[in-house]
Amino acid sequence: MTTTLDCDDLVMGSGMAGLAVAARLAHAGRRVLVVEAHDTPGGYAHTFDLGRYRFCAQVHYIFGCRPGGSVHGLLDGLDLLERVPFLELDPDGYDHVVVAGDRYRIPSGWETFRDRAVELFPDEAKSLHRYFDIVGEIENELAKLPDSIGIVDVLAAPLRFPRLIQMRTWTLGRLFDKLRLSPRVRTVLAGQCGDYLLPPSRVSLLLHATLVTAYGSGAFYPRHHYHHLVDTLVESINARPGCQVLLEHEIDGIDVDDRRVNSVHTATGRRLRAHRFISNMDPLATVNLAGAGAIPDRFVRGLSDDYSYGGISLYLGLRDIDLREFGFGSYNVWSYPHDDLDQIYTDQGERNDLSDPWLFMSTATLHSDEPGLAPPGCQTLQVATHASYDEWSALRERDPRTYRREKKKLRNHLLDVIEARFIPGLRDHIDVFALGTPPTNERFVHAPRGNSYGTALTPEHVNPSRHPLRALENLWLVNASAGWPSVAGTIGSGRRLANELLEESL
Questions:
Q1: Which of 32, 441, 428, 495 is CA-nearest to residue 197?
Q2: Distances 23 to 239, 300, 427, 446 between C-alpha atoms, Å
Q3: Angle, to 10 degrees, between the axis of helix 205-216 and the axis of helix 110-120?
Q4: Are 48 and 40 in contact (CB under 8 A)?
Q5: Contact assessment for residue 436 and residue 58, using Cβ atoms and an 8 Å cutoff
Q6: Are 415 and 407 in contact (CB under 8 A)?
Q7: How far from 6 is each of 61, 190, 229, CA to CA, in Å?
Q8: Whole-prediction pTM value?
Q9: How far is CA 165 from CA 151, 152, 153, 168, in A?
């Protein structure tokens, strides 16, 4: 068994949090090794080939790209801003919410969105003003939270953070009920709920406030596509002396002695040692690799196996068609069959009933005209929704042939829905296609139960400070569950952890 000793920091997993912390540490002169099980880095932000087309697995747009944002801050600190430019999606409507055929554009700018909502629904103006005021107050207080909480902060909390204290346990649905908003207004305001894959009755109000105000400050797409963003971060690590991103090396054990990690070993037969270890893997998966009793019970009890829903992803490469003629452009489209989002999520997530699904549709080739995703004159369309992990996983294990047959049936059904709602004759233009289920997510990115956003973002799982977790003296955890979800969220958590580790190194 080969032993590698020449490493200061070892990062397990190359999702965006792992790449962020590794790139920051490497830039500061640390010797960093990133170990990734997949043959492609990036986690859910990785890009794969499908015939002549390329698709990012599950990332469609991001925030945090303006000065002061986490993505901008990471790239600026690595001297990579000029190499990775971003394009802003249509500020007059970066998301379009379509409910039973009626279309509503979600604009950039919190006040702009408020004014548009009041104009669309004047009879509910008073309640809408209260909604926008409360969500804005929550986000303002979240921005003021200190990195660490001292006794002075605790004593001053009722004065400095009244909304956070009052509404920390609230769901979005509870606020909707309090304001007595109509079903249609609720659907428009929560129309981006696929960005956290929970309905209003379950999602943390604090999390909802963070997400909608963050995207409202600007929704972006990388000019050179997501593979360029990921590849640039990987190259910045590999270019530093003593640093490397090692692919196709799945970690199958973590050796712990006296509350310290001594080494990790891989399925390829390598044992890797470092002074510090950072896990970008799922927290419970990390605990399991360390073995029973290796990590203190008080830490393990704080973790949860209540994950967000898993996604269904349909990837389409299209020829001889311009999607702009069918209501698509430099924005995303959220489609709902009716106004009851809670019922839709229950039907699909608990009953695996996708007979009348919600759909998210994104057109990367209309977000940027840079080459690299499709042949000349062709376009891509990515479609997402959610489904029951249990149903799909059990079928895949029990009868792989039937599983493949059911995937085909679902693909055809989704195409029927898209043709009926948006693009008549879509099938005539399909060049390539692929469909992924929650077990597909679990297989390729090791997301437990195929989850899309880590631990379910309910009030009991959302801690406003959301610090990266320290499990042992020299083991830290950082990912969507141990930090914040989304590209900007995980990058922010990775930067934060890197800064803490660099301070400890002084």
A1: 441
A2: 10, 28, 43, 22
A3: 100
A4: yes
A5: no
A6: no
A7: 38, 49, 28
A8: 0.95
A9: 16, 16, 13, 6
CA distance 484 to 19: 15
User: Could you give the CA distance from residue 187 to residue 179 in angstroms, rounded to a whole number?
Assistant: 14
Question: For the chain, what percent of residues have pLDDT higher than 90?
Answer: 91
Q: What are phi and psi of 439, to 5 degrees?
A: -60, -30
- Answer yes or no: is pLDDT of 235 > 70: yes
Select the CATH number that applies to the domain covering 2-80+223-305+465-505 from these four: 3.40.630.40, 3.90.550.10, 3.50.50.60, 3.40.50.700. Answer: 3.50.50.60
> How far apart are alpha carbons 167 and 265 in whole angstroms?
44
Tell which residue, 410, 419, 468, has the closest CA to residue 438. Answer: 410
**In this prediction, what percent of the chain has a pLDDT beyond 70?**
96
> Packing angle between helix 400-421 and helix 389-398, nearest 10 degrees?
140
Q: How far apart are CA 237 and CA 358, in angstroms?
A: 40
E strand map for 275-400: 276-279, 310-318, 332-336, 359-362, 379-387
- Residue whose token pair is 């999702």: 15
Cα(453)–Cα(440) distance, rounded to whole angstroms?
A: 15
pLDDT tens-place string over residues 241-281: 999 999 999 999 999 999 999 999 999 899 999 999 999 99
Task: Quote the DSSP letter at residue 135.
Answer: H
Query: pLDDT digits over 84-127, tens only?
Result: 999 999 999 999 999 999 999 999 999 999 999 999 999 999 99
Q: Residue 155 pLDDT > 50, yes or no?
A: no
Q: What are the φ and ψ backbone dihedral angles of 61, each rounded to 5 degrees? A: -155, 160
Q: What is the DSSP letter of 242?
A: T
* Per-domain boundaries in the chain: 2-80+223-305+465-505, 90-216, 309-448
3-state SS string for 338-362: CCCHHHHHHHHHCCCCCCCCCEEEE
Going by C-alpha positions, the residue among 112, 93, 135, 326 that lies closest to residue 219 is 93
Residues 229, 487 contacting (CB under 8 angstroms):
no
CA dist., res. 500 & res. 327, Å (int): 46
Beta partners for residue 53, in sequence order: 50
Question: For residues 267 and 262, what is the distance between their CA atoms, to the nearest angstrom?
Answer: 17
For helices 172-179 and 205-216, angle between their N-to-C axes, nearest 10 degrees: 90
Query: Which residues are within 8 A (CB) of 360 and not within 5 positions of it... i.e. 6 or more apart?
Result: 60, 194, 332, 333, 334, 335, 383, 384, 385
- The three-point CA angle 182-185-187 to 5° equals 110
